[in-house]
Amino acid sequence: MAQTSSGSTANSLSHKAVIPRDMIFSFILVTTLFSLWGFANDITNPMVAAFKNILLISNFESSLVQFAFYGGYCVMAFPAALFIKRFSYKAGILIGLALYAAGCLMFIPSGWMMAFWAFLLSYFVMTCGLSFLETSANPYILAMGSEETSTQRLNFAQSFNPMGSLLGMLVARNFILARLDSTDEAGRRALRDTAPEQFNTICQHDLSVIIKPYLILGMVVLVAFVIFAIARLPRSKGEDDTSLHLGATLMRLFSNKKYIEGVIAQAFYVGVQIMCWTFIIQYAENELGMSKTNGQMFNMIAMVIFVSSRFICTFLLKYFSPGGLLLSLSIGGLLLIIGTIFIPGSTQTGAHFQQYIDQYRQTEGVAAQLAGYIKGFYYGILNVKGLGGLLSLVGVSACMSLMFPTIYGIALKGLGDDAKLGAAGLIMAIGGGCLMPPMQGWIMDQSAVNVGFMVLSSTRASFVLPLICFVVIAIYGFRTSNVHGHKY
After folding, report:
1. CA geometry: angle at 338 spanning 334 and 342, to 5°?
2. What is the domain extent for residue 193?
3. Could you tell me if 155 and 141 are in contact, meaning their C-beta atoms sit under 8 angstroms apart?
4. Spatial distance between the Cα atoms of 422 and 407, rounded to a whole number of angstroms
5. In Å, how far are 91, 102, 244, 303, 477 from 132, measured between CA atoms?
6. Would the pLDDT of 148 be above 80?
7. CA nearest 14: which of 312, 251, 318, 269?
8. How far, in Å, CA of 470 to CA of 332, rounded?
9. Considering only CA atoms, which of 424, 441, 405, 470 is closest in space to residue 67?
10. 363 occurs within a structural domain
11. Alpha helices in 231-291 (DSSP H)
12. 277 and 443 in contact (C-beta within 8 Å)?
């Protein structure tokens, strides 16, 4: 990793506040949005497994949840950037919150219809709103102070994103997955063929369980809309210039290799993040025989690691170049994915792990139940063999924590007012999250793969896609530090 370019640069940074005093309130308010979209992202990831079981669809079909969810980012990013350029960051935030709330409330008629396509449409509308929010909030945070501290400032704001993600995971586990009907996939298929009315009743129950948290989320987002509507947010430097100059701006962006490579790296990063978090549950189920709720607990552990690592990496950016740190963490992620693919497990592992949970499970009192579950989970991790591949997958989150805001900051650094439209390209890159999970789901639906020295299940083999993603990100980190010359 390359250290900060010079002592003089380090000294100048130390005298510049990461968040100027007159921007603290605006920074806090806008940073709450990072938690809001983090919640949406990670209450949705487990729904891939939930819809698969409820509606009896394939891994590929269920992963269309992610295609619809992240497709909204891809489709709406560029229109959002043009809107923000014409009006303001605040106006973009308000449109984003309105669409976000509308998508959540659309879950109600989707549940009445019991139609998978209607849920996909709801996710799409929701993330059209999230696209507006991210296209507004990320560059706005970058503009809230000096350019020298912009990457550090964005990393700090992004540190609150996984807090919302962790809450989303907790809600998904305790208020959705844990409350779904316990009938397994085989039992549901039998009911669909022999007792369709009973099958429909179970489906309606499970879909109503899914709807409730999204309904509450829609109400929360509407409250946020009102708060932002009445709040006075200062306009950033250059925001008074509402002329588009679209052609000239695009020419400058397309001629900027560091920016174009950043868009590509961001697409692969979002792809690897969504694949690793979406399919932790399937990995735990298919490879180790665990329940969905236990698999989701490992997802939550991954998010705790992600949150902790984000703060650590934000601190390290004071001493190391963003490109160098990005390269190092990409290599670490690559090695952990190799462990995920090649360290074998056993379907008996889940039963052994569940024994520890049952041993410490309490029957009375919410606090006692939670404490007993955590204790059993902890001792299960310590004592059950065969968890190496799953723990490697969990550990990948430590390496991913730095990546999104760092790639974002590197790519937009030095673009000036072009950053508004440039931000759209980086948000469109989130489309990597809509394409890669269905590809991984399709691989999971295939047969096992013989690689010569061992046979890989289709689940483990599917993680070759995250492996490729980390290679691409590592190349960008290397080129940032050694080719583009940004050792800041």
Report:
1. 175
2. 21-230+248-345+386-482
3. no
4. 13
5. 10, 14, 18, 24, 27
6. no
7. 318
8. 9
9. 441
10. no
11. 246-254, 257-278, 280-288
12. no
CA pair distance 460, 336, nearest whole angstrom: 13
Strands 449-450, 455-456: pairing is: antiparallel
In a domain, 129, yes or no: yes
What pTM was computed for the model? 0.76
SS3 label, residue 385: coil
Question: Which CATH number characterizes residue 164's domain?
Answer: 1.20.1250.20
User: Beta-strand (E) ranges in 115-240?
Assistant: none
Residue pair 326/402 in contact by the 8 Å Cβ criterion: yes
Longest dimension (CA), the chain: 76
- The torsion defined by the Cα of 331, 429, 68 and 192, in degrees rounded to 10, comes to -20
352 is a domain residue: no
Closest by CA to 222, choosing from 135, 125, 92, 103, is 103
Element (H, E) at 194: helix 185-194
Distance, in Å, from the CA atom of 171 to the CA atom of 50, rounded to the nearest integer, reads: 14
473-468-156 Cα angle (round to 5): 35
According to DSSP, residue 16 is labeled S
Q: Which residues contact 187 (CB under 8 A, 6 or more apart)?
A: none
Q: 273 and 330 in contact (C-beta within 8 Å)?
A: no
Residue 395 lies in a domain: yes
Question: CA 33 to CA 154: how far, in whole Å?
Answer: 13
Please list the residues that pair with 450 across neighbouring strands: 455
Using the 8-state DSSP alphabet, how is residue 454 labeled?
A: S
Rounded percentage of the chain residues whose pLDDT exceeds 90: 24
Q: How far apart are CA 267 and CA 278, in angstroms?
A: 16
How many domains, in total, are found in the chain?
Answer: 1
Q: Which structure tokens are listed for 90?
A: 């605040």
Q: Which helix (H) or strand (E) covers residue 456, if one does?
A: strand 455-456
Q: Which of 260, 274, 152, 172 is nearest to 213 (CA)?
A: 172
168: nearest Cα among 67, 306, 56? 306
- Does the pLDDT of residue 370 top 90, yes or no? no
When pLDDT is cut at 50, 70 and 90, the band that residue 418 belongs to is confident
Q: Which two tokens stand for residue 308?
A: 């902790």
pLDDT at residue 3 in the model: 38
